[in-house]
C-alpha cells in the first residue's frame, strides 16, 4: 500500500515521503480500516517536527484522525494507532474507540468532525461551562479548530467574536456565523472586545494559538471569565501571571482531549452522539477548504503548519480531490 513516512524530524514538506509499504497488522482489540479520508491537524506538523507530546519511533506515518471503512463495510471515525497514522491507504485502530460516521456528512466532512469538534465541545461545555447569552472569543476563527468552536458556540446560544488574520479569513469567519470579526493585523483586539461587550469583556476565550493571542485575551477577559488553553499554534507557550488571574478573578483552563479517551471514554461517545445530532440538524458542518489527493498530502500538511490554510484540508487516498 501507499503511505507517507517520516524518517527524520523536520518541516513536513521536507521530511514526508510517499512510499510503498506493507499494510499494518491489527493487534489484540484492533481492526484494519481502509482509509476513506484523513483530516490534517496541526499536531501532524508537530509530529513531523518532533515537537508533539507523543513522539512515535522513526519512521512513522502522520495522520491522527480518519474516516475509514471496516472489513464488514461499516463507515467509522478513528484515531489510528501510531506509528501507523492516517496518511496511508490502510490503518489499524482500537475497535473499542471506533465511532460511527454520521450519515449526513461525506467522508471528508466526517473525518473532520472528530478531534476538532470533540475538543471544542469538551472545552466549551465540560471545561468552561459556556452559557447561552455569554460572549465567546475564538482565536484563529477561520481555522480548523477555531471554525468548530465558532459553530459550537453559536449552537450553544453564545455571542461569538472571532479573531482572524487578514480579510480572506475575516469573510470566512463572518460566513461561519461570528457576530463580530476582528482582524488582528489591522485592529486592536482588546479595544474591540471591550467595545463590543460594553466594557465587560469576553466570558469565555477559546485559544488554540497561545503567544500574543493569550496575552491579549487576559486583557479583555470578563469577571469570572474562563480562558481555555487548547494549543500553541503560534509556537509560543505563554507563562501566565497568576497574580493577574487572582486580581481579575478569571480561570485558566487546560484541555487535552486525548485524555478523555482513556479517562472517560463514555463521555467521548456521548459527545459524538451530540455532535452527530447537531450535524443532522445542520447546526454544525465541518468547513472543508480543500480535498487533496494522496500525492498532495505533504504540501497540505506544510500549509497547515505555516498557518496559511483555512478550515480543514482533507487527504483522500483513493477518492476524487478538489
Provide a count of the helices: 12
- Shape descriptor reads globular
As residue ranges, the low-confidence spans are none
Helix content: 25-40%
* Strand fraction: 25-35%
Biggest sheet architecture: 7 strands, mixed
Counting DSSP E segments of at least 2 residues, the number of strands comes to 15
Folded structure, characterized:
By secondary structure, the protein is an alpha/beta fold. It has twelve helices and 15 strands. The radius of gyration is 19 Å and the shape is globular.
List keywords for this structure.
single chain, 322 residues, alpha/beta, 7-stranded mixed beta sheet, 12 helices, 15 strands, globular
In short:
The protein is an alpha/beta fold and 322 residues long. 33% of the residues lie in helices and 25% in strands. Strands 3, 4, 5, 6, 7, 14 and 15 form a seven-stranded mixed beta sheet that branches. A six-stranded parallel beta sheet has the order 10-9-8-11-12-13, sandwiched between helices. Strands 1-2 form a two-stranded antiparallel ribbon.
Amino acid at each position: 500500500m501507499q503511505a507517507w513516512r517520516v524518517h527524520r524530524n523536520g518541516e513536513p514538506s521536507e521530511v514526508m515521503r510517499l512510499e510503498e509499504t506493507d499494510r499494518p497488522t491489527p493487534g489484540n482489540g484492533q481492526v484494519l480500516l481502509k482509509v476513506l479520508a484523513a483530516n490534517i491537524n496541526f499536531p501532524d506538523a508537530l509530529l513531523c517536527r518532533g515537537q508533539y507530546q507523543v513522539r512515535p519511533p522513526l519512521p512513522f506515518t502522520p495522520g491522527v484522525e480518519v474516516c475509514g471503512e471496516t472489513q464488514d463495510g461499516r463507515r467509522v471515525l478513528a484515531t489510528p494507532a501510531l506509528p501507523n497514522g492516517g496518511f496511508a491507504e490502510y490503518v489499524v485502530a482500537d475497535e473499542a474507540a471506533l465511532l460511527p460516521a454520521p450519515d449526513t456528512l461525506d467522508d471528508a466532512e466526517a473525518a473532520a468532525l472528530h478531534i476538532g469538534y470533540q475538543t471544542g465541545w469538551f472545552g466549551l461545555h465540560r471545561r468552561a461551562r459556556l452559557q447561552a447569552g455569554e460572549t465567546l472569543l475564538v482565536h484563529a476563527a477561520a481555522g480548523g479548530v477555531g471554525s468548530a468552536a465558532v459553530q459550537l458556540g453559536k449552537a450553544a446560544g453564545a455571542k461569538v467574536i472571532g479573531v482572524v488574520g487578514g480579510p480572506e479569513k475575516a469573510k470566512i469567519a463572518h460566513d461561519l456565523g461570528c457576530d463580530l470579526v476582528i482582524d488582528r493585523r489591522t485592529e486592536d483586539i482588546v479595544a474591540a472586545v471591550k467595545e463590543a461587550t460594553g466594557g465587560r469583556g469576553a466570558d469565555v476565550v477559546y485559544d488554540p494559538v497561545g503567544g500574543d493571542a493569550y496575552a491579549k485575551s487576559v486583557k479583555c477577559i470578563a469577571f469570572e471569565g474562563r480562558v481555555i488553553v487548547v494549543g500553541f499554534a503560534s509556537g509560543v507557550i505563554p507563562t501566565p501571571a497568576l497574580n493577574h488571574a487572582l486580581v481579575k478573578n478569571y480561570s485558566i483552563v487546560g484541555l487535552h482531549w486525548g485524555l478523555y479517551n482513556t479517562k472517560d471514554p463514555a463521555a467521548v461517545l456521548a459527545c459524538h452522539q451530540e455532535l452527530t445530532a447537531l450535524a443532522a440538524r445542520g447546526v454544525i458542518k465541518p468547513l472543508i477548504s480543500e480535498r487533496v489527493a494522496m500525492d498532495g498530502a505533504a504540501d497540505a500538511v506544510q500549509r497547515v503548519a505555516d498557518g496559511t490554510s483555512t478550515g480543514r484540508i482533507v487527504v483522500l487516498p483513493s477518492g476524487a480531490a478538489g
